[in-house]
Amino acid sequence: MDLYQELILEHSKRPQHAGLREPFEAEVHHVNPTCGDEVTLRLHIVGEGPTAVVEDVSYDALGCSISMASVSILAEETIGHPLSEALTTFEAMKAMLTSKGEDPGDEEVIGDGVALAGVARYPARVKCALLGWMAFTDALHQSGHRVAVTGTDPEEGTP
Amino acid sequence: MTASPFSPEEVARIRADFPILARTVRDGAPLVYLDSGATSHKPVQVLDAERDFYERLNSAPHRGAHALSEEATAAYEGARERIAGFIGAAAQDVVFTKNATEALNLVAYAFSGSPHPGIPGSERFALGAGDEVLVTEMEHHANLVPWQELCRRTGATLRWIPVTDEGRLDLSDLDSLLTERTKVVAVVHASNVLGTLNPVDELVERAHAVDALVVLDACQSVPHLGVDVEALGVDFLAFSGHKMFGPSGIGVLWGRRELLEAMPPFLTGGSMIETVRMEASTYAPPPQRFEAGVPMTAQAIGLAAAVDYIDALGIERIHAHELALTERLLAGLAARPWVTVVGPTDLESRGGTVAFVVDDVHAHDVGQVLDGSGVAVRVGHHCAWPLHRRFKVAATTRASFAAYNTVGEVDALLDALDTVPEIFGDPRLRGAS
């Protein structure tokens, strides 16, 4: 079925940058209470303000192919990127996933994330795809980096 | 077993009573609804009963002296009598609640650290340090979390009966788990995940020998097996209407009269009082003591119609039908080595609920693929997270049956299931991981 693009299956079977690593400034644990999916995510940021760079995103995740692929794509699309760019990627992912299928996603911005576009048509699965990303923004918040994350609902993804 | 499953013609007639079964989902796939354990569909007889109440009788029961209120009261209390009769109970021992969760919370709430000064006999419900509440590892959260909270409030200790690899209660250590310290044994009759039917007789005998009360979660047994509260010998029994062809928004708590009479109210307000003064109030006898506010009248009437519907089909035949479907599904799953059933794999002491996992594929993904073929199952932990932890699985896929399900629907599930390894089992990917 069209939801399961080859890219999703590859990421879920071979999650990129998986495992928990040091150093990190923040570690968060998020769960999806409806299905029991869990992710522990660590964030390592180097630099401050506009020069901040996502040095590492490491994680230990247990979940469905959608949540596994999404956190794998998150790591791939943010590690080594300026923090501001990572947040733009997050906003674009979130916009696509919550668009009910209207927003196909921009490959220039979200890379392999476009493979998750089909998820937007299945409301029950949107939380799966957002799990890692909500953990990422939560970790960012906890790390103390003051970066405006616009349009983020703090309730979402945190049971 | 003497009762026989429904013939294809009979199932066709049953299905005609459930309009929703005629609809399609996901680009035209016929709906294959195998999620009645979550909630069942409603036959037109139930919908008509609710509509008839609103069209002819609508008013608040037990209030006012006008004609409609009198008729609504009679219909509401008639529904109570009908539903009580279905479980072998007296009407006055049946309390209507919002759902089974509320019914179980009502019982748990009755226990507290000290007796209620205005309610004679309530010392029976006083708990403290040294007392124990015994549950099982297979409980639905609704029959676990209220007891956890009770123990937190009172200082009592929560203990639990473990589950075997086969998905049965492990009673080998019951002597040390169920002792003079045990005040409550809260147990599920039919597991909402495993399908296991628990040995209520034995548990009741052992619990009563130490004067502990037995609270039975009968959500998955009342709709499918036929339950008689006296024969079971339990002290409290809870079930919900929406899982047995009835409306949502109504559940039932049955309790032994002397116990209900000794219990403080759960929700308070209108209808449940005897006298009210500014300083304090006294409470109505059960069941009114536990039914604060204008009750769910149409829902009670709808549930009585559901009970009529079940009786017309015959609960023994419903059980036989569901077991025949379960047998076919278990055989089909056994023939697929990449599927593991979580729960009993034979029909011994079993209901029509089958949970399973597919090798290397998360239940959410299994459910999504099945849904693509119109097959509705439940995926996740089914509000029994500790049970899933015990089996070291994050989630399972669960099929659950009702009288309207067909042999063809079991086959549709199995056919759709075969596409799961086709999608997720790419050997190139699997070999690399």
TrEMBL record, chain A:
Alphabetical GO biological process terms: iron-sulfur cluster assembly
Superkingdom of origin organism: Bacteria
InterPro entries in alphabetical order: NIF_FeS_clus_asmbl_NifU_N
Domain NIF system FeS cluster assembly NifU N-terminal: 4-128
GO MF annotations in UniProt: iron ion binding; iron-sulfur cluster binding
Pfam family, one: NifU_N
NCBIfam families the record matches: SUF_scaf_2
Name of the protein this chain belongs to: SUF system FeS assembly protein, NifU family
Originating species: Knoellia aerolata DSM 18566
Lineage: Bacteria, Bacillati, Actinomycetota, Actinomycetes, Micrococcales
UniProtKB/TrEMBL annotation, chain B:
A GO MF label: cysteine desulfurase activity
Catalytic activity, as annotated: (sulfur carrier)-H + L-cysteine = (sulfur carrier)-SH + L-alanine
The Aminotransferase class V domain, residue ranges: 32-413
Principal EC category: transferase
Keywords on record: Pyridoxal phosphate, Transferase
Gene3D superfamilies in UniProt: Aspartate Aminotransferase, domain 1, Type I PLP-dependent aspartate aminotransferase-like (Major domain)
Pfam families membership: Aminotran_5
EC numbers for this chain: 2.8.1.7
Cofactor(s), names only, from the UniProt record: pyridoxal 5'-phosphate
SUPFAM superfamilies membership: PLP-dependent transferases
Keyword Transferase applies: yes
Biological process terms in GO annotation: cysteine metabolic process
Transferase is among the record's keywords: yes
PROSITE patterns: AA_TRANSFER_CLASS_5
Function: Catalyzes the removal of elemental sulfur and selenium atoms from L-cysteine, L-cystine, L-selenocysteine, and L-selenocystine to produce L-alanine.
PANTHER family in alphabetical order: CYSTEINE DESULFURASE, CYSTEINE DESULFURASE 1, CHLOROPLASTIC
Family membership: Belongs to the class-V pyridoxal-phosphate-dependent aminotransferase family. Csd subfamily.
The protein's name in its UniProt record: Cysteine desulfurase
Originating species: Knoellia aerolata DSM 18566
Taxonomic classification: Bacteria, Bacillati, Actinomycetota, Actinomycetes, Micrococcales
